[in-house]
């Protein structure tokens, strides 16, 4: 654990959505698999289903390759600790509901902004809904995962904010930057830094990349992963789970 909490989280790559969406995708056709079958190390807490977001699913799915890497990452957690997954694969309909809801909240907070400004601001936290297989929303590929960690008593580690919170505090390096500027941090803030480092460094070690504006969001195989990890192409485009009795 020591090697993870002592290693600083580096400043994230500045997002360029035009470049991200221009990255080629060579789909590898991995299936989506359920994430709730390994409770010894991975717990699922489907936030959007719990909050009754339209079309949200009660079971969380992700690409098989991502799942395998998540299992490997879980083996490096401290004894008794587990991942808690809030969201992973997301149907386009859910993405649209979240995008519109978030944009409406920002509109109330920023009444002078026009539509283009609101969309640009919303994109800092929620991907634009897309049905274009060449420019898919990150979560609709099954290559994005939102997660945190619980300790050996089932208590969520303090990451400094709630999942899906708003504001600069959710930026992965928010507290790291305070430390670098020489600000005096209390014991609570220093513990938050350790907790974010633990999650970040364990995930990065297994080949995931982090979405810089959200401490909980990690990618593998999609265009965000290719962009942040400097890969020449993505391997996941939009997909959906296979259900025998449903087309």
Can you walk me through this structure?
It is a single chain. The chain has 247 residues and is of the alpha+beta class. Helices cover 34% and strands 11% of the residues. The protein has a 5-stranded mixed beta sheet. The radius of gyration is 18 Å and the shape is globular.
What is the terminal separation in angstroms?
Answer: 45 Å
Tally of alpha and pi helices: 9
Shape: globular
Count the E strands.
Answer: 7
- Calculate Rg over CA atoms: 18 Å
Main pleated sheet: 5 strands, mixed
SSE arrangement, N to C: HHEEHEHEHHEHHEEH
- State the assembly state of the protein chains: single chain
Mean pLDDT: 94
Record the strand order, biggest sheet.
2-4-5-7-6
Helical amount: 25-40%
In terms of DSSP E residues, the strand content is 5-15%
Give a brief description.
34% of the residues lie in helices and 11% in strands. It has helices spanning 2-5, 17-22, 47-50, 64-74, 92-109, 115-122, 174-180, 187-205, 223-228, and strands at 32-34, 42-44, 61-63, 82-87, 144-150, 209-210, 217-219. 34% of the residues are buried.
Topology at a glance:
Elements: H1 2-5, H2 17-22, E1 32-34, E2 42-44, H3 47-50, E3 61-63, H4 64-74, E4 82-87, H5 92-109, H6 115-122, E5 144-150, H7 174-180, H8 187-205, E6 209-210, E7 217-219, H9 223-228
Parallel strand pairs: 2-4
Antiparallel strand pairs: 1-3, 4-5, 5-7, 6-7
Helix pairs in contact: 5-6
